[in-house]
Structure to design on (195 residues):
């Protein structure tokens, strides 16, 4: 292996060590880490490390055809340590600002969609429901008026029959029973109203 390839490998592994440190910080900020054990978190962490291991091996393969030497691990550790010592505070500051910016944009989009689509739809539905209630109330009152116009002549026609039925003995026997049913119905209705 030539000196140029070794130097290229060391520089790429230094960069990968720094990228690993930045990825760990980003992963820690973007994911929830519960205190108790969770299989979901364990699988997610395992996949995180598998992806980074494959990425590091891919960069190593591009540098020196995948030959593992001691200086490869030393360069990775040096890159990670350099990130922790020099770049971590700056990266975390920029990452926090980026996360706040993205969250602000998402909130702005949600509010814009709400005021552009959802609120007008709610307002239109409220207008439609109010209009329907007005129409139903008018129709109900018209029906009551029409019923009263129809009922009065009918009542004048059947009034003698009702008086005759009231005078019969059979009606006098049935009438107390019907009055009792009426009183029971009223008491049940009052109990429902009090609830």
């Amino acid at each position: 292996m030539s000196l140029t390839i070794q130097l290229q490998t060391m520089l790429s592994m230094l960069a990968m060590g720094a990228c690993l440190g930045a990825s760990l910080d980003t992963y820690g900020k973007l994911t929830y880490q519960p205190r108790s054990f969770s299989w979901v978190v364990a699988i997610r962490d395992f996949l995180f490390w598998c992806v980074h291991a494959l990425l590091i091996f891919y960069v190593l393969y591009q540098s020196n055809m995948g030959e593992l030497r001691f200086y490869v691990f030393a360069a990775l550790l040096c890159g990670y340590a350099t990130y922790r010592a020099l770049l971590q505070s700056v990266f975390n500051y920029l990452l926090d600002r980026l996360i706040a910016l993205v969250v602000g944009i998402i909130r702005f989009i949600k509010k814009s969609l709400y005021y552009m689509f959802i609120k007008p739809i709610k307002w239109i539905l409220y207008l439609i429901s109010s209009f329907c209630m007005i129409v139903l109330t008018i129709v109900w009152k018209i029906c009551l008026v029409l019923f009263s116009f129809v009922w009065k002549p009918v009542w004048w026609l059947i009034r003698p029959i009702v008086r005759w039925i009231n005078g019969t003995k059979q009606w006098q026997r049935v009438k107390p029973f019907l009055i009792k049913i009426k009183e029971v119905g009223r008491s049940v209705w009052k109990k429902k109203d009090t609830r």
Q: What stands out?
A: The chain has a mean pLDDT of 82.
